[in-house]
Each structure stands twice: as structure tokens, then as C-alpha cells.
Amino acid sequence: MATKTASSYRIQGETGEWEVVIGLEVHAQVTSNAKLFSGAATAFGADPNSQVSLIDAAMPGMLPTPNRECIRQAVRTGMAIGAVINKWSRFDRKNYFYADLPQGYQISQLFHPLVGEGEVTISLDDKDPEAEVKTIGVERIHVEQDAGKLIHDQHPNRSYVDLNRAGVALMEIVSKPDMRSPAEAGAYLSKLRAILRYVGSCDGNMDQGSMRADVNVSVRKPGEPFGTRTETKNVNSVRFVMQAIEVEARRQVEVLESGGRIVQETRLFDPDRAETRSMRSKEDAHDYRYFPDPDLLPLELDDSFLEECRQSLPELPDAKRRRYEESLGLTPYNAAVLTAEAETARWFEALLAESARIQKKGEQEVARSAANWLLSDLYGALNRLGKGIEESPVSPEAGAELLSLIADGTISNTLGKQVFEIMLETGEAPGKIVEERGMKQTSDTGAIEAVIAEVLAKNPNQLEQYRGGKEALFGFFVGQTMKAMAGKANPAVVNELLKKALS
In what residue span(s) does the Asn/Gln amidotransferase domain sit (predicted)? Predict the structure, then answer.
């Protein structure tokens, strides 16, 4: 049994409680125009071996040249987590032999990484302003080239190799062993992914392999020194990372309590069987015979380059969330949801800017209205359609026009929902829909008074009960009036005239 509270997460073994110690090594594919040391393309899903240069294939005489954009994106990522940027860094060769590694070594950075220590602040419940907040240390970010990919299911007794990924630029973001529960690891990975997507240095598409995590897990009795860790390789979703931690931690507790010992090794997580399996013993740095790459000069960054990187950074999620709460007056929940993903924040910003331009109202009033509509109506529709906000059939500009029509009384909230459904189906502008389909709200007091008189005449029993003290029936009369006018009556006018008629 495991205790599930945030920082006090424990696994209950036969000999008592065990604490889990977790560190993550996140490999994030750099968003760039080419690979780390060649001009080959990096598009996902290309035909096998169609994006391979002579350098990627390690042909004789081919020399690597660092891609400036890859270095720039890694520096910007480091700045986004408040990390130390090393103005002098160096590439090393990590030597091992495998079929999908044409050079027989990987160009990486061991001794002098591009980015030093930083930190990521997480909340175990972003939607709760009172939730526990914790800072997770980042030890380093270094850049390195990816290997290719072996394909084993194309032939009964042969394996094929696809070198499209060979040479792709990766940032390896190495956390400190500061996490103590699967929930903390999940929150850290989600927050890191959000930061990368805001910065634009990685698309964060874990299902496409552009972001994956190696999960380091050990267990210990609370207060004791760290235990021996294992590394579960290439876990490709937040949910699987959390599952892998729980499964591996329980396995280690069972081994230790049965008198065994944990071996430092590399393991594989099988989500279908909910188990980790041993792949190979874990190599130490000296096993790779690291040495400085003789084909590459050290990287030396000047102040103007660093300043350009710093100036290019966008407003990051924590700062944006604070601004939404403090300046726009949004609730902590709404601010958290709107800033969790860069695409949602950008969509909301566009909606807000257009709404403010059209409505000429106070910023907070417009912001609250826009946030509530996006998170209820639009999100509800997108969930129903199985689409993300970047695929929304309604643009921010069209959404702003719809909100303006509601705000100025042209249509009611009820009519607004009907117009929105038509917008989803047809893609037409809300103003055009309202005009062509005669959906404008009426505030004609004479017409509304006539309908009210008719409603009261048709419901004498309810009228008698209301005047006898059953005031809850007021809503019934409002509903009947709105129904009789096909939802086109101004609700505020209906309420005012009904109170007068019933008094």
C-alpha cells in the first residue's frame, strides 16, 4: 500500500515505510531548421533514410559544424528556468558501438555543458492557489546528437536501420534527485514541457518521440542515505512516467525486503504489463571513454548573443498566470487552465485583444467574459469534436465578435449559444448568422408586454400561487415569456416588465 499525499508519499512494505527518490533525464528535440551538425531536415514521419546527410551517415572525411540555432534554443531554454549559462563549453565523444550509431560514438557534452544549474517550480495542483509548491533543481542542460532507429518488424529474420533521427539535436535536461512521488515527477515533467513549448525550443510532442524521459528511481528508509538507483529508459508520456516510478519503486522494495540487492542497471517499462524489465547493466562514464571531440572547437558565447537570446524570450507561464490573476482579475483556476499550454494562452490573448478592441469596456470585465466563454463553451465544443484549440473551427476573431454581440444586447446568452453551434457547423461569422436568420434580441417593451399579458392569461393557477406568496414561480413566468418569444426577448427587459405586471 502507498500513502498518496504529496510530499509524504510512502510505500508501505513489510518492514515499514519506504521513501522514493526520483530524478529525470529529459531528452527534448530542439526546434530548429536542421540537425545539430548537418543541414539535413528533421520532419517527423518522413520516409526511412530520406533525411540523412553524408555527415549523419559518418562518411569518411565529413566534419561536423554546430548549428547556431540549436545552440541558441538550448541557451534560451536555460534562461527560461533561471539557469547558469556557460559562456565556454565543449563537445565530447561518448564512445559505444551500436547498429544505429554510424560514427561509433555520440557527440555530447559531459565535462563542460552549455547550461549549468537552474530550477523548475511545480505545484501539485495548479488549479488550487493553496496547493503545495516545490522547487525542483536542474543540474544541467547539455546538447547532443540523437542516434538512429532499428526496425525489427519488417522482416522475419533481419533488422533494418533508419538514420533519419541520427544527428537530430537533443537537449538533455537533467534534474536533481529532488522528487519524492510520482505526482511530483508528473508535475515537473508537465511544467517543463509547458516551458519548452512557450519558449519554442521543443514542440513537446511525446507521442512522436520529440520529448522523452529516462526515469531514475531508488528507494530508502526515510532519513537514510540514497539507495542504488535504476534508470528506466525512453518513457514517452507523463502518465507512463508516473506509472513507471510506482512500479519500479514497489519492485525495489520487494527485492530489498526479501534480502536481495538492487543492481545499478538500465530497465524498460512495459505499460501493458505494468512492469519494468532489465535491459543491461548501467554503464558508468568511464565505460564510454569520453574525451574532447577533436573535430569541434569549444563553444564561446559573447554577450551580444546572450542578450539576443534573453530578449527573444516570451512571457513564461508563471509570470503570465500572475498577470492574469492580478491585472485581469481572473480566478486562480481560470488563470491556471489558460496558461497551462502555450497554444491556449496564445488563443486567449488573441481573443482578449480583439474583444477589447470591439467592446470598448474595462479590461477586467472583458477578460472575465472571454475566459469564461473559452473555458466553458469553446472547450466543451472542442472536447465534443475531439479537437485541440489549435484546430478550433472558430477563430479568436469570430469568438470576439460573438461575445460583442452578446455584450451589447444584440443577442441574449441563450441565442449566443445557438449562434455558436451554427458557427461550429458552418464556419460563418456570427454577425452574418444573426442578420440572415433573424436572431436579433428584441427590447421592444410593447411587444414584450403583450406576450407577458398572454402568458399570465394562460396560467391563472400559477398566477394565483405567485400572488399567494410562492415567489419561486417568477422563473416559470420568465421561461414561458422567453419561450413564447423564441428566446429573442431581452431577459433584463422581460424581468423588469414581469415584476411590474405581477405586482
Answer: 346-502
With a cut of 80, say whether residue 412 has pLDDT above it: yes
Report the CATH fold assignment for 443-500.
Answer: Arc Repressor Mutant, subunit A (1.10.10)
Q: Using only C-alpha atoms, what is the Rg of the chain?
A: 30
Asked whether 81 and 199 are in contact (CB, 8 A), the reply is no
Phi, psi of 67 (to 5 degrees): -80, 115
Using CA atoms, how far apart are residues 64 and 62, in angstroms rounded to an integer?
7
Question: How far is Cα 457 from Cα 32, in angstroms, rounded to an integer?
Answer: 72
Q: Residue 93's beta-bridge partner residues?
A: 107, 291
C-alpha cell at 263: 543492481
Q: What is the pLDDT of residue 264?
A: 93
Look up cell 405581477; give the residue: 502
Total-model pTM: 0.87
Q: For the CA atoms of 208, 116, 316, 325, what is the dihedral angle to 10 degrees? A: 120
- Strands of 109-180 (E only): list them: 118-123, 133-145, 149-151, 160-162, 169-175
332, 337, 339, 340 alpha-carbon torsion, rounded to 10°: 130
pLDDT tens digits, residue range 165-202? 999 999 999 999 999 999 999 999 999 999 999 999 99
| pLDDT band, very low/low/confident/very high, at 129 (cuts 50, 70, 90) | low
CA distance 338 to 449: 43
DSSP string, 82-120: TPPB-SEE--EEEE---TT-TTSEEEE-SSS-SB--EEE
Residue type, 249: A
> Where does 298-385 show beta strands of DSSP type E?
299-300
Residue 62, pLDDT above cutoff 80 = yes
In the chain, % of residues over pLDDT 70? 96
Task: Check the CA dihedral 197-201-203-208 and report its sign.
Answer: negative
Q: Do 344 and 329 meet the contact criterion of CB atoms below 8 Å apart?
A: no
Q: Residue 439 and residue 412: Cα distance in Å, rounded?
A: 9
Q: Average pLDDT for residues 239-260, to the nearest whole number? A: 97
Report domain extents, the chain: 9-307, 314-435, 443-500
Chain Cα centroid distance, residue 267:
27
